[in-house]
Amino acid sequence: MHIIDWSIMLLSIALVAGFGIFTRRYMRSVADFMSGGRVAGRYLLTVSKGEMQAGAVVFVAVFEMIGQAGFTITWWQWIQVPAMLVVAISGFVIYRFRETRAMTLAQFFELRYSKSFRVCTGVMGFVAGVLNFGIIPSVGARFFVYFLGLPPELDLGFMALPTYIPLMGFFLSITLLLTISGGLITVMVTDCLEGMLSQLFYIVIIAALLLLFSWDEISTVLASREAGHSMLNPFDASSVKDFNVWYVLMTILLGVYGTMAWQNASSYNAAALTPHESRMSGVLSRWREYGKASVVTLLAVCGLTFLNNADFATQAAPAIHAIDQIADPQVRSQMQIPVALSYLLPLGIKGALCAVFLMGIFGGDSTHLHSWGSIFVQDVLVPLRKRPFGMKQHIRVLRLSITGVAVFAFLFGSLFRQTEYIMMWWQVTTAVFVGGAGAAVIGGLYWKKGTTAGAWSALITGSTLSLSGILLRQILKDDFPLNGIQIGFFTALIAILVYITVSLITCREDYNLDRMLHRGKYAAVKDKVGDADPVPPRRRLNWGRIIGFDGNFTLGDKWIAGGLFGWGIFWAMVCITGSIWNWVAPWPVHVWSSFWHVVGILIPVLMTIVTGIWFTWGGIRDMRRLFVSLRTQTSSEFDDGTVVGHLNLDEAVQEEEAPAAEGINRPANDPAYRQK
């Protein structure tokens, strides 16, 4: 890279690191470290959480999918949009979870079911999570090795060390320091700043790619696939093995079923100022993802064009040679487009893309480290200890746990050989936990007849089936009939059936959901712990009510959410109408080419510009409000994730329901506790 490229990348990282150090002063309690004080606004949550999906590993995963299916996967994904939007607008799961005031999912499980169920799900979620996360740092480091043209191995004299290993250790070290400094406060603020900078770079990168490649050049490559493997015509892609219409249809069920069950960003689920802000962040994230899609797609198709179009044969020759030198076939497949990008991008643009990827690595890895490290402490150590942690001790243990996750990720990434697509590895490892936990989450929040026995049965069934599928797939490989998404799909269906059946058999009395959700006569406790958010009154049935509007929606909220829903319905209708049309009179290739030029490139580019301006303004506004709230709010030392008698500890203290038999005796004026 040129010195200009290095300068762009390093200045961006220096700005983020400096801001991260500044935020440390605002972290004063366990609730601050774990949940950012529960004062985050919708734009701060949207931009910072979205940065998880901007790292090199996510781009590589999408590059793999586009390299296999092209635009055809986009066509079928439109089918699932309305269902996902109703989930987002209604606040399905996330709204009620925020009402429980739990910091982690397993804490909610103790509130709803039992302490033993919390510990078990804490262990399972932690193990599945660190395995899922384990490949992320290594893929990100490998990306930079090939993107920057570094030597694949370092000759140490007595041995040859793969270059990605020390680079991975360097990236993890920086991420770890940011994460443990101020907990979620630092993670949120730095991720938000990274996201806003990335939005600016997206626009610059898109402009450069549109100048470098014409649509005719891109379309020539995409249209050159043999019959059954089309990258433009979704009705001529029946031979695409993994990323097809069935993949999308199964993803719809898994997307709804697994809402919030996967915990790689668990602390964000509890960080919102109110349940409604949490819900609106989910709505806004859909708009932002529309904007980001153009740069990912453009990078992928331009990389494919550079490698395969005869017009670029001379320039692409060194890139093709570099790809051929990669011995591992899975790594070679993953790195085709990254290597191509490293050769085709001009001065300055390569540095901007490097900055995007590197900030995405820090953003994604910091969120994973914080989530999995804190889950181990909150959902395994905290409920098992007879004597609770003191505040300072608690934060110290959280930092040690996060450090342990970073060490594991480094060792795992150094030793594990990946044989799956990244997307498939994520689907399989996620299913180990979500396969059974999804039923317990939805049933626990929405069904008063759900029981602890039903939750245990669903968890054991789902996890056993998922793990069995993983092992059989590893042993039998291509002879096993199911891929990762199919294993998760059938596991979820069976777990739902088991939860319902066992709960109906074992239910002796209805569970008091109002108490857990702080509704009705139980709402007063939220005022006492400083977390008031009125439950909106019920309204008559109308279209707004059907898609999820309630009394918390302002006129502006309705425009944002309603516009998004209308946008999603429009593209779903395009998919349905186009499918019928092609069944009657198939479109020729040149029609599909023109269609994707407008729908797959030009419209997303416009969305990128609009959302870049919109979310930069909102992110700056919410960061300012966050610092004001953190300076003025009073944190409770009892708000630390402990559950007593199916109540959060700070609520139990307010209601004087913390019995001595539970071993909880921590009065607010106890100086011994404050000094720990």
UniProtKB/TrEMBL annotation:
Keywords in alphabetical order: Cell membrane, Ion transport, Membrane, Sodium, Sodium transport, Symport, Transmembrane, Transmembrane helix, Transport
Keyword Cell membrane: yes
PROSITE patterns registered for this protein in UniProt: NA_SOLUT_SYMP_3 (PS50283)
Catalytic activity: L-proline(in) + Na(+)(in) = L-proline(out) + Na(+)(out)
Membrane topology, from the record: Multi-pass membrane protein
UniProt name for this protein: Sodium:proline symporter
One GO CC term on file: plasma membrane
Subcellular location: Cell membrane
Family: Belongs to the sodium:solute symporter (SSF) (TC 2.A.21) family.
InterPro entries: Na/Glc_symporter_sf (IPR038377), Na/solute_symporter (IPR001734), Sodium:Solute_Symporter (IPR050277)
GO BP: any one term: sodium ion transport
Pfam families, per the entry: SSF
The species this protein was found in: Ruficoccus amylovorans
GO terms, molecular function: symporter activity
Region (Disordered): 656-676
Predominant place of localization: membrane
Segments crossing the lipid bilayer: 6-22, 43-63, 75-95, 116-144, 164-188, 200-223, 243-262, 340-363, 369-385, 397-416, 422-447, 454-475, 487-507, 559-583, 595-617
